[in-house]
Amino acid sequence: MTLQFHWFLPTYGDSRYLVGGGHGVATTHAGSARPATLSYLGQIARSAEQLGFVGALTPTGAWCEDAWLSTAMLTEVTERLKFLVAFRPGLMSPTLAAQMAATFQRHSRGRLLLNVVTGGESSEQRAYGDFLNKEERYARCGEFLHVVRALWRKERVDFEGEHIRVEGAELNRVPNPVPPLYFGGSSAAAGEVAARHVDVYLTWGEPPQQVAEKVRWIRELAAQHGRTPRFGIRLHVISRDTSEQAWAEAQRLLDALDPETIARVQAGLARSESEGQRRMRELHGGSTANLEVYPNLWAGVGLVRGGAGTALVGSHAEVAERIEEYHAVGIDEFVLSGHPHLEEAYWFGEGVLPLLERKGLWRHPAGTGESDQVSIPFAGSPSQLATTS
Q1: Where are the alpha helices (DSSP H) in 109-204?
Q2: In which domain, by residue range, is 178 found?
Q3: How many of the other CB atoms lie within 10 Å of CB of 209?
Q4: Cα–Cα distance for residue pair 250/232, rounded to 1 Å
Q5: Quick one: DSSP state of residue 289?
Q6: What residues form DSSP beta bridges with 56?
């Protein structure tokens, strides 16, 4: 299997600086912001599609625009790009979610992927009317996905669980194709849900050895249920022509962070119920020192942002090498982002993807890539140019 790459849609706004937020933390911009207009998000989506990204993750939560509505609109300005829509099972019925997925697939011609977010912060869940604790939310998520899967098999569902109850549920139209379910979580309860129900297990960007342990953990749990999920990783990226240029950019982003903002965000994230968030915070400890926690893996993003807090930083060749290293421990899908998202998509798409293509690890979803040679009138053939330049 060739590697798959997905990009990210910043539906909370974008910037040339780090944009913080998530996991109960208010959105913060270190510099001037680009509003998350449909026009700007469309620019990012069209660029990602052209460059060869398979899909685009769209977040969920109080800090951003609604993912379902935003991506449904963006299907009209794209042709092939899929949308990895993040949603929270506790905020809608499983029957409605299954129906929405079928509608999305029909009108988008099969371009829906689903990222199941159980909800890591009780305070934010309560704002939406969900008063279950973390363990109960995972139990409900399992019941929710059980019902959704049955409906997608065109079954008539009568189900009464501890948290979910439906009677006579069925769909007139099932999604075609059935959208794959993506899911992340580092707690024991999350592992059980992943093992039983999901197609792609996502981890945040920890060092390769820790990622390998997670892959092994989920793989063993899933095998007990006769299942074989795929694995993906969520990372930011700063890729440049040289390593020096990439690290200079990382330093520029770091220099723009206000110490008071870092302290405030870290205090908020310290209250997080998420095991994954705890693991992210342990990588940097709230300090701006020693942020390269593994070769080319920088934890600076996590100083002001909840959730995925690490970035691959380096030359295009170095970033490609780290991707190969993650692939070697079981990762086949990479969900990436950068600041700003429009320009960073091109840095990665034009710098790293061609290197992976030449190694046989990636190919453009449309069957063609930006590496295609172009003839220049009166200048001779591309091969002649290569020998004379």
Answers
A1: 122-127, 134-152, 188-197
A2: 4-388
A3: 9
A4: 24
A5: S
A6: 7, 83
Q: Give pTM, 2 decimals.
A: 0.93
Fill in the DSSP letter of residue 180: P
Angle at CA of residue 301, ends 299 and 303, nearest 5°: 85
**Using one digit for the tens of pLDDT, what is the confidence trace for 241-253?**
999 999 999 999 9
For residue 107, the domain's CATH number is 3.20.20.30
Amino acid at site 388: T
What would the pLDDT profile of 159-172 be if each residue is shown by its tens digit? 999 999 999 999 99
DSSP state of 199: S
Total domains in the fold of the chain: 1
Mutual angle of helices 208-223 and 316-328, in 10-degree steps: 30
Backbone angles phi and psi of 110, in degrees to 5: 85, 35
| Calpha distance 17→227 (Å, rounded) | 41
Return d(Cα 307, Cα 204) in angstroms, integer.
8
| Whether 12 contacts 63, CB under 8 Å | yes
Is the Cβ–Cβ distance between 59 and 50 less than 8 Å? no
